[in-house]
Amino acid sequence: MNKYYLSFMGLRILLCVSHKINISEKMRIFLDKPQTSYDCTIIIQTKKELPDRTEDGVWHGLEYYDYIDGEALTYHFNEIGGKPFAVTRFLKNGDIFIDVCSGFESYFEGSTGIFNRIGVEMMLLKYGGMLLHASLIEYQGKAIAFTGPSGIGKSTQADIWHKRLGADIINGDRAAIRKVDGEWRAYGSPFAGTSGIYKNKNAPLSAIVVLKQSKENKLVPLNAAEAFGIIYSEISIHQWDKRFVSDITDIYLDLLNAVPVYLLECLPNEDAATILKKGLLL
């Protein structure tokens, strides 16, 4: 087995692969030195044949999801009705086993293959976390997550804070959020979207800011009930998986009751950053 050591989203990962893999530039910043213990071990091994899918699961795109003896399985297909080219099994202890049919090893190489196919959402869920569609910045040691639908101006607001206030943009598209030792923290993830910005950094999450385009700048605090539906749609959730939905909802409610949420009705200008900075007492 070839061993690779990763550190991302606050998790120490031991990646064991039966073949050598391509380490892309995007993946390189998440490489780490060997540790004495790991939060998760991922084993990717080549098999000549794979079992057919079960009959009690559900399709989502070209992937088929099911549970067997309490363990989640994902069958990966190139076409519906064909044979799976890989099967991912999420063990109860948090480890991940991936069997790949011979000839399809490249599907699990590089940052795209590794991070997009290992089931990051399931991994985070195991450790009390989630992926939020957001531009994440760090300012004076604290993280601020700008969230909202695509095109609402998340990258614009993050860029204003970077250029005008010296904030560091940690991630441009998907922020990982986890509660660690009683504190909610936000992490850069490998998912940068069109921004291309991703850093292996983290900071305590001081606020989630929901953006809304407006003709004037206005900051409105939201309580948990008001924020629930707005932010829920921006979380990466396996809606087809009832267990996933139930578990992530519990984590999400805990987050909303602990981290301040604001609605920022704004223009794409510096005044919006000034109003937000004042409202956050930064």
Descriptive report:
With 282 residues, the chain is α+β, with helices and mostly antiparallel strands. The protein has two domains: 2-118, no CATH class; 129-279, Phosphoenolpyruvate Carboxykinase, domain 3 (Alpha-Beta Complex). It contains seven helices and 16 strands. It has helices at residues 25-28, 110-117, 120-126, 154-165, 224-232, 242-256, 270-279; strands at residues 2-8, 11-17, 40-47, 58-60, 63-68, 71-76, 86-90, 96-101, 129-139, 142-147, 168-171, 174-180, 183-188, 202-213, 218-222, 261-266. The radius of gyration is 20 Å and the shape is globular. The relative contact order is 0.13.
Provide key terms for this protein.
7 helices, 5-stranded mixed β-barrel, Phosphoenolpyruvate Carboxykinase, domain 3, 282 residues, single chain, 23% helix, 16 strands, 8-stranded mixed beta sheet, 2 domains, alpha+beta
Principal-axis shape equals globular
Number of helices: 7
The SS-based structural class is alpha+beta
Strand content: 35-45%
The biggest beta sheet reads: 8 strands, mixed
- Looking at the overall shape, the CATH architecture of the largest domain is Alpha-Beta Complex
Q: How big is the Rg?
A: 20 Å
- The share of residues in helices is 10-25%
Overall pLDDT metric: 91
Instruction: Say what oligomer this is.
Output: single chain
Reported by name, the CATH topology of the largest domain is Phosphoenolpyruvate Carboxykinase, domain 3
Strand order in the largest sheet: 1-2-3-8-7-6-5-4
Low-pLDDT ranges = none
Q: Class of the largest domain, according to the CATH hierarchy?
A: Alpha Beta
Number of domains: 2
DSSP strand tally: 16
Beginning-to-end CA distance, first to last residue: 49 Å
Order of helices and strands: EEHEEEEEEHHEEHEEEEEHHEH
